[in-house]
Amino acid sequence: MDLGLSDKVAVVTGGSSGIGLAAARIFLEEGAGVAICGRSGDRLAAAERSLAGPHGADRVLSAACDVLDPAQVADFRDRVAERFGRADILVANAGQARRGGIEDLGDDEWRAELDLKFFSVLHPARAFLPLLESAAPSAIVCTNALLARRPEPWLAATSAARAGVLNLAKTMSRDFAPKGIRVNSILIGLVDSGQWNRRFEQGEAGGKSKEEWFAELAAERGIPLGRLGEADEAARVMVFLASPAASYLTGETIEIAGGQGHHV
């Protein structure tokens, strides 16, 4: 199936690892140019090499950028405009979970989590809006989590922030539709990506192998498919939502959680 991405330009925040990196690779395979950003210079350099090797350095741009700093985001946008002259797609993918219940987290931790979840979407959306509007029809895809609909008590701040961002994406979809910009979201469950690998490396598996730990996690969380998802499985849905093949979808949410969601 031709997704219609040839010669488009996709911007992926948090694109140096995990789902973001997988999405960047798929965009390139579909014929698009890609700009990725992240905070780790080492991971960015490795990601750029892995993408440019098969697809050509002229189609890949990487830049260190903290999406919570609007000046850095604006600089990233300017670099994208200088290199590619356009941006057709924005994937707002930056973010991580903050463990703790309502009574475990202090006010500063709550504020930090709310800032991260909301402004990792708002800063890039505001910065890239003129480019997206001039390239319309264009698209924004927000990476969110099943927590937005199914909160967990040990992830109280993250769950609340994720729910707010789901609402934000819906609002953006209504606001940006007249500009020719579609806005959709994916909700991921447990995905074998950078965050879970880092937690494994930090010893959270308690001596179990990665495979044993992931199987245990899937059973504990009641995932009907009995396993964690793969980064590519989430990224393929993300790329579809960003593509002209999804041209009549906006304000929608697709769960990629192995059937873990309980609502109809």
> How does the major sheet shape up?
7 strands, parallel
CATH architecture annotation of the largest domain: 3-Layer(aba) Sandwich
Spatial order of the strands forming the largest sheet: 3-2-1-4-5-6-9
Mean pLDDT value: 94
CATH class of the largest domain: Alpha Beta
Order of helices and strands: EHEHEHEHEHEEHHEHE
Low-confidence stretches: none
Q: What is the number of domains?
A: 2
- Judging from the principal axes of the Cα atoms, what is the shape? globular
Q: What's the Cα radius of gyration?
A: 18 Å
Portion in strands: 15-25%
What percent of residues adopt helix (DSSP H or I)? Answer: 40-55%
The beta-strand count equals 9
The assembly state of the depicted protein chains is single chain
The secondary structure category is alpha/beta
* Termini separation: 29 Å
| Topology-level CATH name of the largest domain | Rossmann fold
Helical element count? 8
Summed up:
The protein contains eight helices and nine strands. It has helices at 18-29, 41-55, 70-84, 107-134, 156-176, 194-201, 210-220, 231-242, and strands at 9-13, 33-38, 60-64, 89-92, 138-145, 181-188, 191-192, 229-230, 253-256. Helix 3 packs parallel to helix 4 (107-134) and helix 4 packs parallel to helix 5.
From the structure above, extract its key features.
Rossmann fold; 7-stranded parallel β-sheet; 8 helices; alpha/beta; 264 residues; 2 domains; two-stranded parallel sheet
Structural write-up:
- The chain has 264 residues and is of the alpha/beta class.
- The protein is built from eight helices and nine strands.
- The protein has two domains: 9-190 and 231-256, NAD(P)-binding Rossmann-like Domain (Rossmann fold), CATH 3.40.50; 191-227, no CATH class.
- Strands 3-2-1-4-5-6-9 form a seven-stranded parallel β-sheet, with helices on both faces.
- Helix 4 links the parallel strand 4 and strand 5 (138-145).
